[in-house]
Amino acid sequence: MSTTSDDVYQASPPDEEPQLKRVLGPKLLLLFIVGDILGAGVYAVTGTMAGTVGGIVWLPFLLAFIVATLTAFSYLELVTQYPRAAGAALYAHKAFGIHFVTFLVAFAVVCSGITSASTSANVLAQNLFGGLEVNGWMGAPDKGMITLVAMAFMVLLAVINLRGVGESVKFNVVLTAVEVLALCIVIGVGFFVMAQGTGNIQEITVFTDYQDKGLFLAVTAATSIAFFAMVGFEDSVNMVEETKNPERIFPRTMLTGLGIAVLLYMLVAVSVVSVLSPTELGEIRESEGAALLEVVHKGSPDFPIDKVFPFLAVFAVANTALINMLMASRLIYGMARQHVLPRGLGKVLPGRRSPWAGITFSTVLALGLIWYVSIDPDSNIVANLSGTTAFLLLCVFTVVNVACVVLRRKRDPDRKVFFTSPGQLPWVAAILCAFLAGPWVGRNPIQYQVAGGLMAIGVVLWFITWLITRKSAASAGPHDREQGIPPDESRGEPL
User: Fold this and answer.
1) Pick from 94, 70, 71, 73: which is nearest to 82 by CA?
2) For residue 250, what are the CA distances in angstroms to 82, 237, 245?
3) Residue of 159, 109, 115, 129 whose CA lies nearest to 370
4) Where is the composition biased (Basic and acidic residues) (predicted)?
5) CA-based nearest residue to 92, from 79, 107, 102, 83
6) CA of 164: how far to CAs of 63, 350, 362, in Å?
7) How far is C-alpha 345 from the chain's CA centre?
8) For the chain, which terminus, N or C, has the lower number of CB atoms within 10 Å?
9) What is the CA radius of gyration of the chain?
């Protein structure tokens, strides 16, 4: 008698913890993936990309999509072989079996969530003030006010998170619809301008070297920037235990979601180039996260769309930030419960049952991060935060692609295979991800400083936890082990 994956993972013995309910079919999973990819990304990076490559701003989106898709092949091979909600950390652990490497991968994912949420907070603040300004309700704010609102938003997220948020995947349908609607407005404005005969459609094949980088380096730099808009697909593997028959529906659904996202992004890019002049394309990078608002404002002078659009953008990026901070705080909680981070970070509110210590820790890191990147008044805060997020995830993706190769060699030849990344594509994806993470793409040094600082904080906390765990285990006898004293990982004892 054959047994499906649903039977295996749902049929739990009576004395075990119940398994997660499998509620996601192909349609809901697709909406989750599209909703996770869309959001703050395209708002955050389009202006910077346009100010780097000019009219061919669509090309970096396409190249970032190709790299993301190659990495998605590796994720699909791994998630169908190991259908567990742990993602990159699980694959690294299965491939290398080194606890410290597993920790680095997991904490890098945590940090990427915090930097992504911080990016969203700044994009939200810029679009909020842009909406107030375009409606004539206030004047242009200074950077200090935008930073203050971004930090206040992070505190608000913490309060919401502390109260306990029951995120429904079906509610994600509404949020995804808002995200798509906002992008469709940008696309519609661009096509309206082209239909009027006043667009600059001929510019979409013109490369303008605003920063004197040369074609190759400029496109490479813009592709590295664009990668921030393509991330999110990897989060869907954490929904695998809530997906019906994941081995069969995940491959087609994830790749379809990536395809929908890049199609929308390229149409947005074409609209931006059509509406703005070459001179305006070079200057739009100064608008940071409000770049698309500039496009809507110029392209629809006789319609009130530009008065509504910024608030749709606020709603879209707010959801992105909330999901990122939910993910980061829960990962910190889980790592503390597994004795990888200090146990105090696993504290839970008695009534609300929300991980208050993880929420507080991730929020403090986010506030410090926003403050640090805003010290330099001439810096592009959104570009630096989104670039840091892309760098962290490119490093994680490099590890995942290598893990795919390692685990393919370890695979039981008699084990059923549901999806395999073609040929040597995992190696190609690993090399491309590592290349885009390098300093040769023109990444601002502050992005490496931020990523290194965040990871250093994690390593210090890991080392403190390791010392405490080792000391406890050294003095623990068999009876103490039975009473729950943590084991010593350094001696190979399982957690």
Assistant:
1) 94
2) 12, 9, 8
3) 115
4) 478-495
5) 102
6) 39, 12, 16
7) 23
8) N
9) 23
Please provide residue 302's backbone torsions phi and psi, each rounded to the nearest 5 degrees.
-100, 5
- Tokens 């393509």 locate to 230
User: Residue 17: what pLDDT?
Assistant: 41
Identify the bridge partners of residue 54 per DSSP, sorted by sequence position: 207
Q: For residues 103 and 413, what is the distance between their CA atoms, to the nearest angstrom?
A: 29
What pLDDT is stored for residue 22 in this prediction?
A: 64
Instruction: Report residue 71 as tokens.
Output: 């990495």
- Measured CA to CA, the distance from residue 150 to residue 260 in angstroms comes to 30
* pTM (predicted TM-score): 0.85
d(Cα 88, Cα 373) in Å, to the nearest integer?
A: 28
Which residues, 6+ apart, have CB-to-CB distance to 131 below 8 Å? 293, 307, 309, 310, 311, 314
Contact status, residue 436 vs residue 67, Cβ threshold 8 Å:
yes
CA 248 to chain centroid: 25
Chain centroid to Cα 455, Å, comes to 17
The candidate with the shortest Cα–Cα distance to 340, out of 108, 112, 106, 91, is: 106
Beta partners for residue 24, in sequence order: 243
Which backbone phi and psi does 24 adopt, to 5 degrees?
A: -90, 120
Contact 198, 33 (CB under 8 A): no
Rounded CA separation 235/218 (Å): 29
| Residues composing the chain | 495
Question: Which of 377-416 are b and which e, b meaning 16 or more Cβ less than 10 Å from the residue's Cβ?
Answer: eeebbbbbbbbbbbbbbbbbbbbbbbbbbebbeeeeeeee
The per-residue pLDDT for 170 is 54
**Count of C-beta atoms within a 10 Å radius of residue 271:** 28
Is 331 in contact with 458 (CB distance < 8 Å)?
A: no
Residue 477 has pLDDT above 50, yes or no: yes
| CA distance linking residue 267 with residue 262, whole number of Å | 8
- Specify the higher pLDDT residue, 177 or 369: 369
- Dmax (CA) for the chain in angstroms is 82
442-477 CB burial, b ≥16 within 10 A, e <16 = bbbebbeebbebbbeebeebbeebbeebbeebeebe
Tens of pLDDT along 230-274? Answer: 888 777 776 666 678 777 888 888 899 999 999 999 999 999 999
Where do the H-state alpha helices sit in 140-284?
Answer: 143-163, 171-195, 215-230, 246-275, 278-283
Two tokens, residue 84: 């567990």
